[in-house]
Amino acid sequence: MLLAIVLLSLAAQVPALAPSELGPSVGQPLPAIAAPDQDGRMRDFVSLAGPKGLVLVFFRSADW
C-alpha cells in the first residue's frame, strides 16, 4: 500500500507533455539519423526514400 502511495505521488509530480510538443512539427525537416537495418547495413532517410518520398510511422504499442 505504501509503495502505491509513493508511486502515485511521484507520477503526480511529472509534468504532462502535449503530443504536439513531441517530435518534429509538420513540415519541419527531420534530424539526420542513421540506424542499422535487419541485415546490419546502416540506413538513413535518404537511403530509404523512394521516388515519391518516405512515410515513417512510429507506433507506441499499448501492450506494455
What is this structure, in a nutshell?
With 64 residues, this protein is α+β, with helices and mostly antiparallel strands.
What does this structure look like?
The chain is an alpha+beta fold and 64 residues long. It has two helices and two strands; from the N terminus they run αββα. A two-stranded antiparallel sheet has the order 1-2. A hairpin with a 5-residue loop joins strand 1 and strand 2. The protein starts with a helix and ends in a 16-residue tail after the last helix. The model has no long low-confidence stretch (mean pLDDT 77).
SSE diagram, text form:
Layout (H helix, E strand, L loop, with lengths): L1 H12 L20 E3 L5 E3 H4 L16
Antiparallel strand pairs: 1-2
List the defining traits of the structure above.
64 residues, alpha+beta, two-stranded antiparallel ribbon, 2 strands, 25% helix, 9% strand, elongated
Spatially, the strands of the biggest sheet line up as 1-2
Main structural class: alpha+beta
Assign an overall shape: elongated
Rg result: 19 Å
Instruction: List the helices and strands in order.
Output: HEEH
The biggest sheet amounts to: 2 strands, antiparallel
